[in-house]
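Sample log: Claudin.
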Amino acid sequence: MASASLQFFAFILALFGVFGDIAATLLPNWKVNADVGSNIITAITQMQGLWMDCTWYSTGMFSCTLKYSILSLPVYIQAARTTMVLSCILSAFGICITTVGMKCTKLGGDADSKNHACFAGGICFILAGIFGLVPTSWYTREIISNFLDQTIPESSKHEPGAAVYTGFISAGFLLIAGVIFCSSCFKRQQGAWMYPPKQHHFPSTEQESNAGYSLKDYV
């Protein structure tokens, strides 16, 4: 029962991780630049994401431009696109597999099959967390290095946006969920190896016949 509750908790974490991973991939605010200027009425907030760049004006106007050209993008953005999409795909696979392998569900067949499915789903979550953690870390490093560069003008400097923080948190949720799923399956297998089922030895029929009365003396 405790293992089933722990798996259910890990499944909830994985769901939050999947939704956060998808949101971080689609959000346009990976890096943000707020230019107030001489008047707050003309304040402009520029946001750049993996797929589009958006500009928000204090007057309420909002415009976005899609990034159609892939080869013209920096390498870290191209890598972030690829790894974030892989992270979303792996986390979705992990949700499907662990739904079959969890102890609280009636899918997946016998206990060994559910155990293997649960372990495979945990591996998917761990890989998804790694694929989500790498681009967010690389993207944050590029933002910080450009912000500290004295040769870059202040108007071209950005700060990490909400999408980066969402990606970090989602990757952490996926990693924790994957570790919980894998460790629960490993503990179960280790217990089966350390404590094998006891074999009950029953007396043979020959011993039972010897223990009874011999009928040769009465012939």
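Observation: The radius of gyration is 29 Å.
Observation: The domain at 4-28+70-194 is CATH 1.20.140.150 (Butyryl-CoA Dehydrogenase, subunit A; domain 3).
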